[in-house]
User: Which sequence fits this backbone?
């Protein structure tokens, strides 16, 4: 969950990290008043959750409250990358002697937060990392043990900063690390962290992202910042497709069938299982496929939940077929998912054998699941077929617009049944 | 009307068994059975949610309740 700059500044202030005098305004009058309070040159910044503010004209400078008011008027009416500004930040322009970068991010490989420091601030840290890696200092720290200043100091010293500057920068980076942990951030950065002409350090701009799952735990902070419970704060607004996916997941507590993201491809995906959804999405892309969506299904959803998610994917404009794939599942029943996806096809008037390009979910109750799939003529794979191979089959089918991919290992007893009979849903009942 | 994948058959002579109606309503984890004033009611919209746990079969007298797997033509029942 992204935070606006003015909110990030409040958090810095809360943790006693020096910031330039500033205020958030939603009207031109408020902007003028803040500029008057600052009493000197100010910078006016659009409050949008997107980059490229400077290029788009969302950052202006003013020498008087009147000029600030005029700029604020223009910025408040300026949409940037489709984002309407939440307001403007009016901040004092500091007499900067040098700009640094101070940040904390989470290292997913080491599973630890890490300091990132550079003596070249004010520009994208990624650019510095690529072009001048010797100007970046790093260092991991524990989320459990108390934050020790020497770790921050070490990261700063790697860039060649010494003496008084090193001593003054250390508590700033250390405090940033503490707030990163305290407020469940996934990113906390100050860029630039300015050294003023008098030798002091002050945060001129800040950017923070909070872990979405931490919202309940950070309720007090979010209330203080005025962040509404219904604000998603994602990089872009959720589409109706994504909102519907979330609704499907929330109305039934059983399992997971949601977290959808929309793309513009022709292959619908009903995928999941412990990170398998990401692997499978990548596998489809690698095979040249064009996913229509990303989603997550697992944790043993009900038949209706699986069916509703599948219907959502099938009804997305441009979707020709769906691929139902997971890694090997132990906590999701294959037969239940099979029922769900087939039911969705039938209820929408599709032949499951035609609409489901491939079904590759090995695991719990797979024998029962394979019986269902066979009954409806759906091509399925067992665990002897890799996720990448299953993705290839799905991509081939959707590319050719046919159901004629190479045969797969495993039983397909339903293949010999004509579609009408496969879809009838009736059969002779014998003693089990 | 049966589900797409599952149907259940409850013998006529136990459909008004008050005790059985409650046992089935309590036992089924996906609410396929309801106790309607002492009458065993099958909730059709839940039939396909059946997880084949057989709790209903164990709760009913032998031969009085069958779970039909429509996709392979077999049935679960207590002999």
Assistant:
């Amino acid at each position: 969950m992204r935070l606006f700059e003015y909110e990030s500044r409040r958090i810095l202030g809360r943790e006693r990290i020096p910031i330039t005098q500033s205020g958030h305004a939603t009207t031109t009058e408020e902007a003028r008043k803040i500029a008057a309070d600052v009493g000197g040159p100010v910078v006016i910044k659009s409050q949008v959750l997107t980059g490229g503010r400077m290029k788009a004209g969302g950052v202006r400078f003013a020498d008087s409250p009147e000029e600030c008011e005029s700029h604020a008027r223009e910025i408040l009416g300026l949409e940037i990358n489709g984002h309407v500004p939440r307001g403007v930040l009016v901040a004092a322009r500091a007499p900067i002697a040098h700009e640094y970068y101070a940040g904390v991010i989470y290292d997913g490989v080491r599973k630890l937060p890490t300091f990132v420091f550079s003596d070249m601030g004010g520009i994208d840290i990624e650019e510095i990392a690529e072009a001048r890696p010797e100007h970046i200092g790093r260092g991991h720290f524990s989320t459990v043990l108390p934050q020790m200043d020497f770790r921050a100091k070490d990261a700063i010293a790697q860039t060649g900063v010494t003496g008084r500057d090193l001593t003054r920068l250390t508590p700033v980076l250390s405090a940033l690390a503490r707030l990163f942990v305290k407020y469940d951030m996934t990113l906390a950065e100050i860029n630039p962290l300015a050294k003023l002409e008098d030798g002091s350090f002050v945060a001129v701009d800040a950017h923070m992202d909070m872990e979405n799952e931490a919202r309940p735990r950070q309720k007090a902070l979010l209330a203080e910042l005025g962040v509404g419970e219904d604000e998603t704060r994602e990089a872009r607004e959720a589409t109706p497709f994504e909102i519907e996916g979330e609704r499907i997941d929330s109305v039934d507590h059983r399992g997971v069938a949601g977290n959808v993201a929309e793309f513009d491809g022709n292959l619908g995906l009903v995928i999941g299982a412990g990170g398998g959804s990401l692997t499978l999405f990548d596998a489809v892309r690698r095979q040249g496929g064009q996913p229509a969506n990303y989603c997550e299904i697992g944790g043993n959803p009900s038949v209706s939940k699986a069916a509703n998610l599948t219907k959502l994917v099938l009804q997305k404009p441009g979707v020709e077929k769906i691929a139902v794939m997971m890694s090997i599942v132990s906590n999701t029943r294959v037969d239940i998912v099979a029922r769900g996806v087939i039911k969705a096809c039938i209820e929408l008037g599709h032949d499951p054998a035609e609409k489901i390009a491939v079904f590759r979910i090995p695991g719990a109750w797979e024998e029962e699941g394979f019986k269902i799939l066979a009954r409806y003529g759906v091509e399925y794979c067992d665990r002897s077929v890799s996720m990448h191979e299953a993705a290839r089959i799905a991509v081939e089918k959707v590319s050719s617009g046919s159901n004629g991919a190479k045969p797969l290992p495993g039983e397909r007893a339903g293949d010999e049944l004509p579609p009408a009979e496969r879809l009838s849903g009736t059969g002779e009942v014998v003693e089990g | 009307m049966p589900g797409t994948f599952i149907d259940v058959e409850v013998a006529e002579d136990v459909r008004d068994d008050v005790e059985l109606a409650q046992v089935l309503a309590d036992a089924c984890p996906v609410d396929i059975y309801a106790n309607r004033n002492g009458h065993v009611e099958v909730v059709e919209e839940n039939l396909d949610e059946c997880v084949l746990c057989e709790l209903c079969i164990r709760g009913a007298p032998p031969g009085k309740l069958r779970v039909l797997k429509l996709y392979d033509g077999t049935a679960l029942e207590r002999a």
Summary: The helical segments of chain B are 18-27, 55-59. The two ends of chain B are 25 Å apart (CA to CA).
